Amino acid sequence: MKPIQVGLLGIGTVGSGTFNVLARNQQEIKRRAGRGIEITMVADLDVARAQGIVGTGVKVVSDARAVIANPEIDIVIELIGGYGIAKQLVMEAIAAGKHVVTANKALLAVHGTEIFAAAQARGVMVMFEAAVAGGIPIIKALREGLTANRIEWVAGIINGTTNFILSEMRDKGLDFATVLQQAQKLGYAEADPTFDIEGVDAAHKVTLMSAIAFGIPVQFAKAHVEGISKLAAADIKYAEQLGYRIKLLGIAKRRHANPAKKLSEGIELRVHPSLVPNKRLIANVEGAMNAVMVHGDAVGTTLYYGKGAGSEPTASAVIADLVDITRLHMADAAQRVPHLAFQPHTFDQALSDLPILPMGEVVTSYYLRLNVADEAGVLAKVTGILAEAHISIDAVLQREADEVGGEGATSTDLIILTHDCLEAKMNAALAQMQALPTVLAPIVRIRKEELA
Ligand code: HSE
After folding, report:
1. Does some domain include residue 409?
2. Which of 11, 140, 284, 293 sits most deeply, having the most CB atoms within 10 A of its CB?
3. 196 and 241 fall within a common domain
4. 355 in a domain, yes or no?
5. Residue pair 103/130 in contact by the 8 Å Cβ criterion
6. Which atom of ligand 1 is nearest to the CA of 290?
7. Atom 2 in ligand 1: which residue has the minimum CA distance?
8. pTM of whole model > 0.85?
9. Is the CB–ligand 1 distance for residue 161 below 6 Å?
């Protein structure tokens, strides 16, 4: 049978990895797919560079629309990125009846509902394994391997740049700005690192996982997004002393209604630095590596680990999608794995309208660092406010003032770990504590996840 024909839009790091791995492993891939898979056309603005990568046997053009218009092309791989032209091209490829493979998490997290609906209507597949955690087959695991389960939560280190920075801060005791500069020099962080360090990239990815885990629409706009740029080296050190590591986690969690505690049913969707017990495997994921934990009611807790970025790891995910499409494209569209794991058509199985809970309704535990005057009664006042709010304390750590502020210091750090409580309650208690004259600096609050 004639090989399936693939057109590639954008041949950068991932595109060239895809081309190389497909060429290197073509026999293996053909035996798995049941048919050859060939990139026969590439669109890239730098035609000469692209032609240099793919050789003379592949047609290279500067106009992506020429690829979409080519009737020989069965699958379009979009590796341009962003929401602008990439969105137009994906929609045009779908309209032209092409299957689409993309690594574009931003595009799908923001416009996924529209894109998947268009693909559904046209009977084509839009595959995106490479969009979340690079080479880790987490989309496949959530959508297929764990399909028997009611997923309770997903929590992942899904941004390598920030995990690298946090690892370096912990290892070397350096502050955020110094490590970011080093990461940029080493090529781990982009020249404009905003999406990574402010948690946006992780939020795109966890938004996609939330949709697949719970059968809800993709709702990036409702995700709580907080990055690592304000993290202080001191908090990483104190967390360590208490048996925790700080990780930037993307969390999607099903919350069951609890009328006694006035808790409504919904989904927590949030990205923020989190203390994680250092005995959890995920706390020991260091450097630029990624890892995702998924808890299902039948399987229990599972963990997926690997490279979340890079040329060939991401190509591995792109090609897995190409193989899936090759195997399934002749099948009746209704028999294929649904884009977001749940069948969108059947009324009683339609996408769920479970709400994304506002942050005030999230339940979690906390690490608090208060810089306080080292005088009588301070601890009592602070713990009194927490007691009044029914927030239970799990642990307290206080260092001698000299140790924190140097010889003769009159203030010190008071570290408090709490048990679970409603975020709105914690916000109110924090405001009261902050107003105490003996609390000398803005209180640091970092959420804590036991991931048990
Ligand atoms: N910039 C991402 C990261 C990789 O640092 O993990 C692509 O999603």
Report:
1. yes
2. 11
3. yes
4. no
5. yes
6. 6
7. 159
8. yes
9. yes
